[in-house]
UniProtKB/TrEMBL annotation:
Superkingdom per UniProt: Bacteria
Protein name: Calx-beta domain-containing protein
Keyword Signal: yes
Signal peptide annotation: 1-22
Keywords tagged on the record: Signal
UniProt organism field: Algoriphagus alkaliphilus
Amino acid sequence: MKINKLYSIILLFMMGTLVSCMEESDFDKVWDGSEVEFDASTLPNGVTQNFVRLNATQTDQANLQINLVGAAQSTPVTVTVEADPASTAVQGVHYTLASKTVTIPAGQVIAQLPVTVLTGNIQPTETPNLVLNITSANGAKVSVNYKSLTYRIRVICPSNLVGSYTVLWRVLNLGDGSGGVRQTATNFTIAAFPTISLTSTATGVYTMSDMSFGMYPGFYQDTAPTGTFTDRCNVLIGASTNRDRYNDPFTITGTSTPADGKILITWKNTYGDGGTVELTKRP
């Protein structure tokens, strides 16, 4: 009985302390303000947009969304944006801004900031990044965490790699689990999984139906991992987000020769799997 009473006293003391802490931490307060933010600022790497360069005078229009987080206002909210000195994109060379302000209309919660991309001035080897900061907004606060956005402008050549491809392994490496190779084959075809397909997800960006090129389902009876790459003037760059279902990252590089419909890709994961595959476009 004494023990029960002691436990009761301790429990009441802990509950009282918890309530006191919650009161001091303002847990009972409800946020009722409005903030402005870049919609894409929540993405870890900002926004990358590819443009196909067709001539030296070409321009393209991009729109970057700004959100009003909270209730729509009864009066317009004007947002001011400035280019950050850290930008590698140069005004008048890589882009232009018609205005540094954008207005979110009364009763609305989004607006678009137009950016003119001077595509004809940009070489595919350049990597201009435009860093934008929201500096002020009338009628709303500026978000502390989402006020900045990195807009990566990339120029590529015309690309059309969509289709079905046969897979020939010039070199096939089966991993040993620690990054090494336990078995190798050359000029090899996985009979049960001889093809993959490429679909377009954005300009110059392609999704592979199986970025193990038949290895996972053929050798491990495992799920085929999908992955993406970007075609930059016939140089293929795998996305940094390419991972299998075990969260093992894939490093993918390659080249394409549109004239003969062939793609050469070299890949590897940290398990040790990988190799070089030759993809030939099917009619």
